[in-house]
Design brief:
The protein has about 950 residues and is of the alpha/beta class.
RNA sequence: GGGUGAUUAGCUCAGUUGGUAGAGCGCUUCGUUUACACCGAAGAUGUCGGCGGUUCGAGCCCGUCAUCACCCACCA
């Protein structure tokens, strides 16, 4: 059977993948021959997502590490799985519902909606997994995990409850980042601050009761620059609509301009309210007017000021960012603004202020505006009840683990970023007003009125405390919460029966009404207590933060957990260092008191060829599946690998992928050549060789193995790819195959057999070493070129090294290759017809050079197209001279060469050489250099000068001969 | 405002303890030498952003400036 002319990636990839899967080649522990484990957790992609180039890159790197370790006999697990991705998935399903004319989420209700999400997940959830398989990702697919299935929800619930019981999770009413589109709170990290063109409006707030004061402005030297009587205080704002919720105007305590009116009241325009002028450290006297309106419920800074000074908070908007129109807001939002979108309200407020003559002036200004990272709408600070994690406490161990070196972060510089974030961490808001996710395991029950407790006797009625509405029960399951609540109430002397009544309601203003927690009066000796569950779900990152232990079966102490935890390395993009990496560190360290992994390798983000982030809206997305269809998975993988330098960004282009597709073809054809020349693979062990070329290529192979291993060890994937490329194409294909041809096709059976064996071995080594990067084509060739005891995916990674290097062979091949290149170069430059065979004259060769020539004259003759060899002591007329180590060669080209052309060539060569030599000689003449530079360096330079001088002398001699010819 | 990184051949980028620069693509010339035209051979191209400094020696270390990118941040 002869190999086809090209590798048919589309056909072979599907077949090979099926064979791997069928053989269970990727299962945990497959091919393990030692006790050491190697485990990687896949960064779980969104369950309903599809593969983009970033995934392809990320998973290629992981697959390389995994395949490499598996071939080296490590007990290897690559744990796959997907993330439920709360907001993203809920959004996708809502869109789908709208598109297909279904009821909306709210119309169908929570239970029904969640059914739809699960349907959607079943339907589209397998896509990305199949795509990862096409990439060649060798995950243990039998262990595929999902953050909403199996033990995972239990793990999440248990962690929530444990943290709650330790006081590390708590509920708080405070300002959060509110997304008016999704109508949920989001964390700081999900907010993107973007600079936009905005305005700053300067308003005049009149003093109450028509009071006036003398306003005096001074320059830095204390000279008065302005003095006038004012009946107002000027404030500036970028968000005029929030003025309706102002609770005060603040000035800096040192600001003399306003000292006369501190403590007085101003009349808030448009609202029938008086608010005080207070002092606080927050206002900057040098910025704007120096006076700041304080809207505690709609601005984070103002909130802090309001808290410090006991200023009232007025919440102006509902969950959609619409000015409140509910009854409670009757006295707050003036009628004309109610029900208006916040941006509409802004226009109206500005117009109304202007109409009142209170508009001081307006300026254009670039402002930083917060946007939701998924919704892309302007985020509104909102006062709501949310669940928080005490991140500061959890951050301590996460910081220590990296500082101590227990966990390494690569590239090193990202450590600083990690430190900075953890050292300044804020409480983590983990509750989301969504439906798709892990529902908070908290139930609310009625708070019993203490007055009654004393008289409860089992038949007496009990009432609720209407002023303090609920008791909180946090437990991992309904059964547990029943037990907990029953005990709680019975401890108060009440016999109860606990029932559930669904979730507490979320009203449109975002306040959870827990008053529905209820109780019925005594029946048959007990009281019925109704519990309502907190409707919120947890931030997706709360659950994915438990990915390492959760996928291994925690909270059960499974064999996998014992064996593979802590995992080895986390491979991910630096964009989720905070979102995910830091959270995993914090949570794993808190929950199991052990780091989740020992190394974090942060790779670049993939951009398009112009360096722009790929996005659907820009239309610059390269679809990895299309690239795989066109070029094959291996070409894509090799390309990504070759560009995986530590840090930075990765710009992907189709041309480059095509180039590496060609590399695969090159390898394929080298194998094809070997096959056509009777090189049968499959022999075990490093072959013994006598021929110089064979000894040389064996050494080269050992060298590249060392380079590749070192590069993988240091996560320098691009260096491994580069070394393999240079070896396979530059050494094996360009030289070894060519040099081997005379031996393979010659008469000496001994050399022929030896070379067949060596070539088969060399190509096998190429396949093995390339396999982690290019698994498909190498597996295919492995199968087609010999009888194998096992698939290449379980091939034995070699351990040979320097002991296979043969200095003598290296030197000789270097000499031969140099000569051949020299001859080719001269021929090309002299425009000697490529087909023309010329004689080569050896000139004054020493014994070593002579022996080298004799051993390799067939090779040289063939590769340099030399017809015959002659020996002379004097260079023939009209010859071109090639200096070599131990002598020189001449090409007599008198009738073909252009003498002045050759002279020009020599002049150029000599000039270059002399430039180099002069530099080096300058150094040796420098006393400082000679006395301070290391001996090795000096010796090297001296040697190079000697060589160079010799070479220059030969060139000069050749020039003299040519001169004589003219 | 703080921080980080980048600036090297026409393009995209490597360059790991400082020893006078590399790859891929592109470009030029030549080539049906039966593995491969997704190929082969030969070739051209860089004051390594500017300016200073340390050093025998700097793309690499230090300072500074310029331009760009990204991250973080509450200036109304």
């Amino acid at each position: 059977m002869t190999l086809d002319k090209n590798f048919d990636a589309a056909r072979a990839e599907a077949e090979i993948l099926a064979r791997w899967l069928e053989a269970g080649a990727f299962r945990a522990g497959a091919n393990a021959s030692r006790d050491e484990t190697f485990c990687i957790m896949i960064p779980p992609p969104n369950v309903t997502g599809s593969l983009h180039v970033g995934h392809a890159f990320n998973n290629t790197l992981q697959d390389i590490l995994v395949r490499w370790h598996r071939m080296r006999g490590f007990d290897t697990l690559w744990q796959p799985g997907t993330d439920h991705a709360g907001i993203a998935t809920q959004l996708a399903v809502e869109k789908e519902l709208a598109r297909t004319g279904n009821l909306s989420r709210r119309e169908m209700g929570r239970e029904k909606f969640l059914e739809k999400v699960w349907e959607w997940k079943e339907q589209s959830g397998g896509t990305i997994v199949e795509q990862l398989k096409r990439l060649g990702a060798s995950c243990d697919w039998d262990r595929e995990a999902f953050t909403m299935s199996g033990n995972f929800p239990d793990a999440v619930m248990k962690v929530f409850v444990d943290l709650y019981n330790k006081g590390l999770i708590y509920r708080g009413k405070r300002l959060v980042n509110w997304d008016p589109h999704f109508e949920t709170a989001i964390s700081d990290l999900e907010v993107e601050n973007v600079e936009v063109q905005g305005h700053m409006w300067h308003f005049k707030y009149p003093l109450a009761g028509g009071e006036t004061y003398e306003y005096v402005e001074k320059d830095l030297d204390g000279n008065v620059t302005l003095r006038e009587t004012r009946d107002y205080i000027a404030i500036a704002t970028t968000r005029p609509e929030t003025m309706l919720g102002d609770g005060a105007v603040a000035v800096h305590p040192s600001d003399e301009r306003y000292a006369p009116i501190v403590g007085k009241l101003v009349h808030l325009p448009l609202c029938d309210r008086l608010i005080p002028i207070i002092t606080d450290e927050y206002p900057d006297p040098l910025f704007g007017s120096g006076a700041v309106k304080i809207t505690g419920a709609h601005d984070f800074n103002d909130y802090a000021v309001a808290m410090r000074n006991g200023i009232e908070l007025y919440r102006l908007m509902d969950t959609r960012g619409v000015m409140r129109a509910d009854a409670a807001a009757d006295n707050l939002v003036p009628e004309q603004y109610r029900g208006l979108d916040r941006f509409e309200a802004r226009k109206l407020v500005v117009a109304d202020i202007d109409a009142l003559g209170l508009m001081d002036f307006v300026e254009d200004k670039k402002i930083m505006q917060p946007f939701g990272d998924r919704s892309k709408v302007v985020i509104e600070p909102m006062l709501t009840d949310q669940w928080y994690v005490d991140a500061k406490t959890l951050a301590g161990p996460a910081l220590a683990a990296v500082k101590s070196g227990e966990v390494a972060i690569l590239p090193e510089r990202d450590k600083k970023v990690y430190y900075h974030w953890l050292e300044n961490i804020e409480p983590w808001c983990i509750s989301r007003q969504l439906w798709w996710g892990h529902q908070v395991p908290v139930w609310y029950g009625p708070k019993l009125k203490r007055d009654f407790l004393g008289i409860i006797s089992g038949t007496t009625s009990v009432s609720m405390d209407e002023t303090n509405l609920h008791e909180v029960f946090c437990a991992p399951s309904e059964a547990d919460v029943i037990a907990q609540a029953t005990k709680f109430y019975e401890d108060q002397g009440v016999r109860v029966k606990v029932v559930f009544a669904g979730d507490a309601d979320v009203q449109r203003d975002g306040q959870i009404d827990r008053a529905k927690a209820a109780l019925n009066n005594a029946k048959e000796g007990f009281i019925e207590i109704t519990l309502f569950r907190d409707p919120d779900v947890l931030d997706t990152w709360f659950s994915s933060g438990l990915w390492p232990i959760g996928t291994l079966g925690w909270p059960d102490n499974t064999p996998e957990l014992q064996k593979y935890y802590p995992t080895s390395v986390l491979v991910t993009g630096f964009d989720i260092l905070f979102f995910w990496v830091a959270r995993m560190m914090m949570m794993q360290l808190e929950v199991v008191k052990q780091v989740p992994f020992h190394t974090v390798y942060l790779h670049a983000l993939v951009r398009d060829e112009k360096g722009v982030k790929m996005s659907k809206s820009l239309g610059n997305v390269l679809d990895p599946l299309e690239l795989i269809d066109e070029f094959g998975a291996d070409a894509l993988r090799f390309t990504l690998t070759s560009m995986a330098a530590l840090g930075g960004t990765l710009k992907l282009s189709r041309e480059r992928i095509a180039g590496y597709r060609n590399f695969g073809t090159k390898l394929w054809n080298a194998a094809r050549f070997a096959e056509m020349n009777g090189c049968v693979a499959g022999a075990v062990g490093v072959p013994k060789a006598e021929a110089t070329v064979n000894r040389w290529i064996i050494g080269e192979t050992a060298r590249v193995r060392e380079v590749v291993d070192k590069a993988f060890t240091e996560y320098r994937f691009n260096e491994a790819a580069l070394a393999l490329y240079a070896h396979v194409w530059g050494k094996v294909c360009d030289w070894y195959v060519e040099l081997a041809k005379p031996l393979l096709q010659g008469e000496d059976e001994r050399y022929k057999t030896e070379t067949q064996g060596v070539m088969a071995w060399v190509l096998d080594q190429c396949l093995i070493l390339l396999h982690p990067v290019m698994p498909f084509i190498t597996e295919e060739l492995w199968g087609q070129t010999g009888a194998r005891s096992k698939m290449l995916v379980h091939g034995d990674w070699p351990t040979y090294g320097a002991e296979l290097a043969d200095g003598e062979a290296d030197a000789e091949m270097g000499w031969v290759i140099g000569l051949i290149e020299g001859i080719r170069s001269v021929r090309a430059e002299m425009h000697v017809n490529a087909g023309a065979k010329v004689p080569l004259v050896a000139l004054g060769l020493d014994a070593v050079a002579l022996a080298r020539l004799e051993r390799n004259r067939v090779l040289i003759g063939r590769l340099a197209r030399v017809e015959r060899f002659e020996f002379a002591s004097v260079a023939p007329k009209g010859a071109v001279t090639l200096p070599v180590e131990g002598g020189a060669f001449c090409l007599p080209l008198a009738d073909v060469i252009d003498v002045s052309g050759e002279l020009a060539r020599l002049v150029k060569t000599l000039a270059k050489l002399e430039g180099e030599l002069n530099g080096l000689k300058g150094k040796t003449a420098n006393v400082n250099f000679m006395s301070r530079a290391p001996e090795e360096v000096v010796a090297q330079i001296v040697e190079r000068i000697a060589e160079g001088d010799e070479e220059a002398a030969k060139i000069r001699a050749a020039m003299a001969r040519l001169q004589a010819l003219r």
